[in-house]
Amino acid sequence: MKQLVVAIDGPAGAGKSTVAQIAAEKLGYTYIDTGAMYRGVAWKALQQGGKVTDARILDVVRDIDIILRYEGGRTTVTVDGTDVTGLIRTPEISHIVSQVARLGPVREKMVALQRKMAEQGAVLMDGRDIATNVLPNADVKIYLTASIEERARRRCKELQEKGHEVSLAEIQADIAARDKADMEREISPLVRADDAVLLDTTGMSIETVVSKILEMCR
Ligand code: DC
Questions:
Q1: What is the pLDDT of residues 42-58, one digit of tens each?
Q2: Among 48, 49, 143, 179, which residue's CB has the most CB atoms within a 10 Å radius?
Q3: Model pTM above 0.70
Q4: pLDDT in tens, 152-184
């Protein structure tokens, strides 16, 4: 069977990484979580303490060594040799990551790494600009979304299960702010590619979404 390049884009909390990981495992493909890379940059910018300014982000990204590995069905992210996998999905990082992702030099560096990772094919990459910018020649393009209420509920549950004290209202406000920032930024905003299949997962189970993705790949 042909080794496909699959691009999945969509807003925060749409379930991209959950379903993409399962689909990648079933297809025997590599899963590439591009949001984790922007989160890794945000983590490094936060390390210095104090206010995170654009100048600081541009400074830390200049010599950042960011490595994304997908092994045994699990993604690990290292930043300058530190494994940050468990440290990048916090409300604090979610809060500043859109600021990081709107800067041109950050995106140029991440996109170059992402294209390199997809060179061999047999990859399923998720993010915001994969079908429109990173891999415009992808074989399968999917735009995954869900209502903001459902996305906030999913994110809230995920964070609470990890022990974070968060409220639904707070998460929903953060997601709405992130949607706006990601969709309205100047460089590579989140937009559905003309040739992407729209998949609204509101009220759908994970299994249903995964089987729809697998259908599109077969
Ligand atoms: O998918 P996520 O929530 O982990 O993504 C974190 C942030 O990174 C998100 O707010 C937007 C940004 N992002 C991006 O701009 N381009 C991508 N390809 C992936 C993520």
A1: 999 999 888 999 999 99
A2: 143
A3: yes
A4: 999 999 889 989 899 999 999 999 999 999 999
CB of 178 sitting under 6 A from ligand 1? yes
Distance CA 169, CA 210 (A): 28
Contact 132, 70 (CB under 8 A): no
What's the token pair of residue 135?
């891999």
Going by alpha carbons, the residue nearest to atom 4 of ligand 1 is 35
Residue bearing the CA closest to ligand 1, atom 14: 128
The rounded Å distance from CA 86 to ligand 1 centre is: 17
The residue assigned the tokens 């990484």 is: 17
Tell me how far the alpha carbon of residue 74 is from its chain's centroid: 15
Q: How far is the CA of 41 from the centre of ligand 1 (A)?
A: 11
How far apart, in whole angstroms, are the C-alpha atoms of residue 217 and residue 9? 16
Report pLDDT for 119. 94
CA-closest residue to ligand 1 atom 16: 128
Q: Which residues pair with 70 in a beta bridge?
A: 75
**Contact of 193 with 141, CB cutoff 8 Å:** yes
- Please, which residues have CB within 8 angstroms of residue 155's CB and are 6 or more apart in sequence? 12, 13, 171, 175
